[in-house]
Specification:
mainly alpha, two-stranded parallel ribbon
Length: 311
């Protein structure tokens, strides 16, 4: 059952759930335009400030691609399943070494068992709230590339292991792991990206403006996003309490929370509503008098304060 049916009429859900190919294409183009535009800006004014800005903006758009892949996994990015599958995989997932099919299986389990012992994402939210020192160590590991390198190495190791056998590998690990052929497709996409960056900006720019953001800023904002969605919330089956919406400003939406990902409570209520209609769904819920019952945070600094409130 869709949790949102307890608060919305069937007609309201039907209207909110309408998808648009034009919107889907615009979002994908927007993500890649910001990525390439950030590198172009650096080539025009090469200095430390524009380099850092490019890394941060590109890392946030890599998260944006993950979010658009997530939209494709829910068949909400485009009107047709074929376009959701193709664009979600080739234009969004594989460039960041993510696999749409594996992600969908894993993610739908999360929706089905949110904040229960069967939730495969519970390990991401269970440590919170934690101490400030613990949170600081986690964020430093992300920003310095330690988390990214470890995770990418694990992906490659799983790919070779799964190419031979799956005995001894948990179902949760299988849901997230790459097989050899899937990893191969992701590497092919990145080889194409390497060639594109080389032709447009120089051979070294793929390393500086794709691999570096992927290992650093992307990991940081991915963690912040995960914390914001389910960290330090009620461990219950109440969809208004076990998921958080973060009220993000323009700068946060640019650098931390692209493509309306901050409206996570609304997404859990009706998971097939396209991301660009989640603000409207948020307003509808508030108009129905549910604002006080909804778990919300006033920005991502507020989220981090709540997540580090222990001790």
């Amino acid at each position: 059952m869709t949790p949102g049916k307890a608060y919305l009429t069937s007609e309201e859900i039907r209207t909110l759930s309408q998808r648009s190919d034009a919107w889907g294409m615009a979002l994908v183009v927007h993500a890649w335009a910001l990525i390439l535009g950030s590198v172009w800006l650096f080539t025009l004014w090469p200095n430390l400030l524009t380099f850092a800005l490019a890394v941060v903006v590109i890392g946030s758009r890599q998260l944006g691609l993950a979010i658009l892949m997530h939209e494709g996994a829910h068949n909400a990015l485009f009107r047709t399943r074929t376009w959701n599958e193709w664009a979600g995989a080739w234009l969004c997932g594989r460039p960041i070494l993510a696999d749409l099919a594996s992600y969908r299986h894993y993610h739908l389990m999360h929706h089905r068992h949110t904040q229960t012992d069967k939730d495969p994402d519970l390990k991401l939210s269970a440590p919170f709230p934690t101490t400030r020192a613990s949170l600081r160590r986690k964020l430093i590991r992300d920003l310095t590339g330690q988390t990214g390198i470890r995770q990418r190495a694990a992906q490659i190791a799983f790919a070779f292991r799964l190419a031979g056998e799956t005995e001894g590998v948990s179902s949760q690990d299988l849901a997230q792991a790459f097989s050899g052929p899937v990893l191969g497709k992701a590497l092919i996409v990145n080889a194409v990206l390497f060639g594109l960056f080389w032709v447009l900006f120089g051979w070294w720019t793929w390393f500086a403006f794709w691999l570096l953001p992927l290992l650093t800023w992307f990991q940081l904002v991915l963690r912040v996003r995960n914390i914001a969605e389910h960290g330090a919330v009620e461990k219950s089956e109440d969809p208004l309490r076990n998921t958080r919406t973060t009220l993000a400003g323009p700068l946060e939406r640019l650098l931390v929370a692209p493509y309306w990902v901050n409206y996570h409570l609304e997404h859990h209520l009706v998971m097939h509503v396209p991301a660009y209609r989640l603000p409207k769904l948020h307003r509808m819920l508030r108009d129905k008098g549910l604002g006080e019952r909804m778990t919300q945070a006033n920005g991502y600094l507020d989220v981090l304060r709540q997540a580090s409130a222990r001790g």
